[in-house]
Every structure is written in C-alpha cells, then in structure tokens.
Design goal:
The complex is a heterodimer of chains A (252) and B (506). Chain A has nine helices and nine strands. By secondary structure, chain A is α/β, with parallel strands linked by helices. The longest helix of chain A has 13 residues. The chains are: A alpha/beta (252), B alpha+beta (506).
Chain lengths: 252, 506
C-alpha cells in the first residue's frame, strides 16, 4: 500500500490541461512558412531535394499532405523556409494543407464543408475504429497516445473502440497496402452509417514515400469522402486531437 | 581442393567484392551450413536469393557470436531447375529463409515441412497464391475449435491474422498469417535512386524502430562509400538508439500492465514513456527520432542544452521507473499472470535462431552491441541482460532491467561525449558507392538484430537491397510460446514479444 502511495505521489498530475494551447518543443516540425520572396532558382533547388515531391516546382508551395517533415528543404535554405512548431495543421479540405509562399495563416477547417450530421450526432461522443493499412506503427502509437494519461482525449467522449460495429467512423493510417485494401473496405462497410473517415499521417493522405509503389492500392481513398486530413510523419497526438475537436466543433 | 569455402567479414567493415564470395556446389553449401549451425554460438543472419543473368544466387551469412565475425558464401542455381534439398528438417532456423526464397523465386525446397507464404509480396513468383487461400494447418476433430483473429485487431495496432486451434480454453496451435503490411520496401530502396529518399524509407520500415533501421541503413551506405564518421557522432547515434530502446521498453511495461488490468502500472509507465519521447523530440523535433540519423553526419548534433535536458529527464524518469517497476514486479496479482506463462525454452529459441531480447530471455547471449559491435559500442562494452526462464515474466523483467541499463549507458556515453571533439559534419547525400560489392550492416535495435545488406553493380548503383527485421526470426517463437496456454493469456504473451508486422512484411 505504501509503495502505491509513493508511486502515485511521484506520478503527480500528468494530464495536459489545455489541449488547444499545450506548448511543444521549438524544434517540432509543424506548419512550414515559406518566404514570399523565394526565387525561381531557389524553388528549383528545394523541389529537387524533396524526397516526396511535396514542393511545387513552379509556385514553391509545400503540400503537407505529401510532406514527410524531413526538413531538408529548410536545412538547405534556412532563410527562406522554416518549420514552425504549430501542430494545428489538420483540415477537412485537402487543398488547405498546401502552404503557399508568403502565407503565415494557420491551417483551419472549412466550417461550411463540415457535414451537418457530424456535429449534430457526434459532438458529445465520437467512437472511432482505427485501421492500419500499411502504417509503420509510429502513427498507430501516436493515435494510441491520444487516449493516454497525458492527452486523455476521452475527456471529450472521443475514444477508439475495439469493433467497427461500435464505431462512428474509421481512422486510417498507412499508404493502404494492396493486401489491406479488402479488410479496410470490410471494416468500413461494417461501421454503421452515418460515419466519418479520417486520414492520419502523410502516408494515408497521399501515400507519402510509398506513392507509386506497386504494392499499394489507394482506390478506397479516391472513392470515398474524407472528413478530416491529419498530416504528420507520424501525426502528433495534439495534431490529431485538435483536428477532431475542430471537426466536432468543440471549442475548448 | 584449396577452393575457399567462405569468406570472413566483420560488421560494417570494408565490403568485399562480389566475386570474392565463394560460390559452392549445393552439397558443399548444405554441409557447410549444417556444420556451422551445429554450434550454438552461431546463427543465420541472412539467407536470401538474388536474380542475375537468368540465374538465381543464394547468399548465406552466418554470424559467429563468440568471435565477432560473420562468414559469407553462396550457391548459384539455374533458373530452369529450381529444386533443392531443404535444410529446414535438420536446421529449423532456416525455415523462414527458405520460405521466403520459395515465395520470391519459386524454389522448391524438398522436405521442407512448412513451405508457406511469408508476406505475399507484389512481385511474388506464384500470383495464384493470394491472401484468401493461405493454407492454414487444421485438425479434423469434433472436440476442437478454431478461433480467427484479425487482420484488423481490437487495439490500435498493425494488421495480421492469427488462427488458433483450441481444445476448450487451451491453445493447441497458433498459426500467424502475414503480408497485410507489405509496401514493397526492398524494391523501393533499389528503385528510388536518391540517398534522402532511401533514408526516409528506412525510417518507415518499422516506425517504432526508426532510429534502429535508419542507423543500419546509414552504416551500410557509409561502409560502401568509405565514409568514416567522428567518434562524437558515433556516441550520439548510440545515445539515440538507447533512447529508442528506453522509450519502447517503458511503453511495453505499460502495455503489459494494461493486459493484466493493472492500471496504476499502465498509467504511470505511459506517462514515463511520454517524457522520454518528448526528450527525443526536444533533440530533433520528432518523438520517434525520424530525421535524426543520416549517412555521414547529422542535422541535429547534440548540444549542451539537449544534454542537460536529457540528464534531468533521465534522472527523474529513471528514478520513477525503478520505483514503479519495483512495485509492479512485487505484486502477486501481476506475477500470477506473468510467471510461468508463455514459455519459450532455450532449446526452442536456439532451434528457431531467435535473436535480440527474445533470445536473451532464454539464456542465449545474442546482442549485436556486444557480439558484433558497431558505432561507439566498439569502444564501450555493454552489459547484456540475460534471463533464463523464457516466460512473460522474463520478458517483462528483461525490459525492466534493460531500460535501467539504457539509462546508465546514456549517462556514461554523455560523459565520454563531453571529452570528444564535436566535429560532426552535415549529412552526406552525394556519396559514391564501391562498385560490385557486398555490404552488410547490423544494429541491435530494441527488438534485436536488424540487418541491412546491399549489393552494388558496375556503376556503383544499388542492384539489390535486403532488409531483415528481428521479427522475422522471432514470430515463430510467439507461436510456440502460446501452445498449451489459455487463449486468454494470448494478449499478454503477444505483448511480451511485441514483434513488428511491417518489419516482417516490408
């Protein structure tokens, strides 16, 4: 009994009080900012270096849906590109993940494009089923972390559940391997409607470094409406949490 | 008569020329493998096929764990006659390698008792083999029933299919079907002829071992390109690897507690893991260390600021982890679920060629940091943690003591690091690789032995790339460990091994 009390005392209070404003370390690689005066030649240089073609060779914009956040472009041109530690980078609009040169505006959801029934039905309780379809287990671990003692997403009634039958939506990680395409479809079909789809991590959003691999099959993504894109390699728990809170219209 | 039967190489030493590797007749090859693997101090690191000019070349690499060396030799087959006598019946640890060669190239291994698909790769030889018709072992009996679990599991974990044959509550047999995670990594590592792309890929082989795999890849490229890195960088890489080990071991302690419904242990350890991965993030901006390890140099050389933060966190987390694990491993309700559950015997571990943590919990010293040292471990002898009982308790205690050991190692490495000149360069991406060579790189990740092998061609391009995650050796160990256990003990058995699906499926 005394041992337990000692452990509890050392443990103290660990939960993140405000999930909206929790600071993360300065080096965390979140939303990039590209200088407005980046030149054509500089764009050419960095887009050639990018391992996942996330940098548009013409405009110099960075697509966070493709970016693996390796930061090599910034190491090459530190004056022109920096990665801020802004982790609120989820959106329900795919194009909103594309950061243009000169833009410092935070990434947010397009309120008008959030499906009505989502907030009506799920605002006070959202149960999610996670499907890893070629995910490398880093995104999976970060999603599991959203429910741990630090982040405690359960405080908003948002939880991962064991069966699609109990779920209001699915969260997909990984580029969708060919061998998981069918189980993914079956899991989605087993989830009762209305239901939502969240893509967690760069691999899920665009295929990431696996784009074009003959071993992946992205038809599911092309054929279904995606309700939330959560970029990251892997997604930070706070990126996921803030994205889902925004989707449900939970202010704080 | 004096034809060389094998060549000796060391981990990350100068890669030999391809034509130095002796190509043996299969009878000689067969006898030699058998002779080597009779010795408990040796195990098979890699045995795989490479297609070239209408033929199939099989490379075999066996590690001599007592003498810091590996032996390497090959056999070549004509593609029109792909039949060989299987080594598995006399040397079971080769079962998975022969299965892989069979799946990729259609080689028939006569006498192999279990020649089943490994991962259903997109470029497999027999396209009629599909996920849906995996040939599960079955027993016809009125008394027995089968339980299928997965590919999508109840927790937030990767996919794989488990098929149990049970007698009541007791598991008679478990067979695991893989392949759901196959992303074509090995092929991509060849096709993406860009150093940075290969780094990013290597970090995604198994994202929970980003540092381990990125280090294996970087070492491999460095040995092929003849790049020497400074001692300071070597130390930093070892620290990164120990931070990864520490974070995972603490996280697994939490998960083990969770599986036996001991909430205090789970919650406390989850919070402790957070402090460690947040420190890694403080260092390099990523909680899993992605981007931290690069060939030739580093984008994130360790600073005094990071070191000071690390020391503070390690002191506090180390103390609290010791405190909570002392509690966990003194509780009858926890010990009752761990002790004598899911036993893997020493003999089974040896015959399966188990590696890493799994081997060490069965009394077998297999730790690449010690037996085939790399980076700064060459100058810094680690003290491997060995347990004998091979049960869930041993695997839990292994994590417990290895985590404490990692804390000590990081402390000691930081002290050495302080004395070194910090001449750490920027990463090198325009390296030139040695032509027509065979290079092998091994790293002791937290699961065990990670091995990357590359073969280069006439132009210095990578002609072939092989990745082996320790999980490939160890999954069968889990299947054996759950035999005769209650099926309700499966989750805790599974967690105690915590093997990688994507590392197996590639």
């Amino acid at each position: 009994m005394f041992k337990e009390i000692k452990v509890l005392k050392s443990h103290g209070s660990q939960y993140v009080k405000n999930l909206r404003t929790q600071p993360v370390s300065a080096l965390f690689r979140g939303r990039p900012v590209i200088s407005g005066d980046i030149t054509k030649d500089e764009i050419k240089t960095i887009s050639a270096v990018c391992p996942v073609m996330a940098i548009d060779g013409k405009s110099g914009s960075i697509d966070m849906g493709r970016c693996v956040f390796c930061k090599e472009c910034s190491f090459l041109l530190p004056e022109k590109i920096r990665f801020t530690n802004d982790y609120r980078i989820s959106s329900n609009v795919r194009e909103a993940l594309i950061i243009k040169p000169g833009s410092e505006t935070p990434v947010r959801l397009d309120e008008n494009r959030v499906r009505k029934e989502i907030r009506k039905l799920f605002k006070s309780a959202l149960k999610l089923r996670q499907v890893s379809a070629g995910g490398d287990n880093s995104c999976e671990m970060e999603l599991a972390a959203t429910g741990n003692v630090n982040f405690d997403l359960g405080r908003y009634g948002i939880e991962f559940v064991a069966s699609p039958r109990h779920a209001d939506g699915i969260v997909i990680t990984g580029p969708i391997s060919k061998n998981m395409a069918e189980p993914l479809q079956i899991t989605y079909d087993a989830t009762p409607s209305p239901k939502i789809i969240i893509l967690a991590g760069t691999d899920a959003i665009s295929g990431g470094i696996f784009e074009g691999s003959p071993a992946i099959d992205r038809r599911f993504i092309e054929q279904n409406h995606i309700d939330l894109y959560v970029p990251g390699n892997p997604v930070h728990p706070l990126t996921f949490i803030n994205g889902v809170m925004d989707l449900l219209g939970i202010k704080s | 008569m004096d034809q060389k039967l094998y060549i000796e190489i060391k981990n990350n030493s100068l890669p030999p020329d391809l034509n130095e590797i002796p190509v043996l007749k299969y009878e000689v090859f067969y006898d030699q493998v058998l002779a080597f693997l009779k010795d408990e101090g040796k195990h098979c690191v890699a045995y795989y096929g490479v297609e070239s000019a209408g033929n199939l070349k099989l490379y075999c690499c066996i590690a001599d764990d007592n003498n810091n060396i590996m032996v390497l030799f090959a056999h070549e087959l004509n593609k029109n006659h792909l039949v060989l006598k299987s080594l598995t019946p006399v040397c079971p640890q080769l079962h998975i390698f022969e299965r892989e060669i069979h799946e990729n190239f259609g080689v028939e291994f006569e006498g192999h008792p279990w020649l089943k698909p490994v991962r259903y790769p997109h470029n497999r030889k027999d396209r009629s083999e599909i996920m849906d018709n995996y040939p599960f072992y079955n027993i016809e009996s009125e008394e027995l029933h089968e339980v299928g679990v997965g590919p999508v599991h109840a927790g937030i974990i990767e996919p794989g299919h488990f098929r149990f044959i049970c007698n009541g509550e007791k598991v008679l047999h478990l067979e695991i079907q893989f392949g759901y995670q196959h992303r074509g990594i090995e092929k991509l590592l060849i096709e993406k002829n860009d150093a940075l792309q290969r780094c990013v890929l290597s970090e995604s082989i198994a994202g929970d071992t980003s540092v381990g795999h990125a280090l294996a890849h970087s070492q491999l490229m460095e040995s092929l390109a003849g790049i020497q890195v400074s001692e300071a960088l070597q130390i930093e890489r070892c620290i990164a690897l120990e931070m990864e080990r520490l974070a995972i071991h603490i996280g697994d302690t939490a998960a083990l507690c969770g599986d036996v419904a001991y909430q205090l242990g789970q919650v406390v350890c989850e919070a402790l893991r957070t402090t460690i991965i947040n420190t890694t993030q403080f260092w390099c901006g990523n909680r899993f260390g992605k981007g931290l390890v690069r060939p030739g140099g580093s984008n994130y050389p360790l600073s005094n600021e990071v070191v000071n933060e690390m020391l503070i966190v390690l002191y506090d987390t180390g103390r609290r982890y010791s405190e909570v694990t002392d509690l966990i491993y003194s509780l009858p309700s926890v010990l009752g679920r761990f002790d004598d559950i899911g036993i893997l015997t020493r003999q089974q571990a040896l015959s399966l060629g188990a590696v890493g943590m799994t081997a060490r919990t069965c009394g077998i010293l297999r730790d690449i940091r010690k037996t085939h040292p790399f980076q700064y471990y060459k100058n810094y002898p680690v003290r491997p943690v060995i347990h004998e009982t091979g049960d869930v308790l041993a695997r839990g205690m292994e994590r417990n003591l290895e985590a404490r050991e990692s804390v000590k190692i990081i402390h000691e490495l930081i002290e050495i690091w302080r004395q070194k000149i910090k001449d750490i360069k920027k990463p090198v991406y325009d390296y030139k690789l040695k032509l027509n060579s065979f290079a092998i790189s091994m790293v002791e990740g937290w699961r065990g032995e990670i091995c990357h092998i590359a073969i280069t061609d006439n132009n210095g391009n990578i002609a072939h790339y092989k990745v082996k995650d320790p999980s490939m050796h160890n999954w069968m160990a889990l299947a054996l460990a759950v035999r005769n256990q209650e099926i309700s003990d499966f989750p805790v058995c599974n967690k105690s091994f915590n093997l990688s699906y994507c590392g197996n499926d590639l």
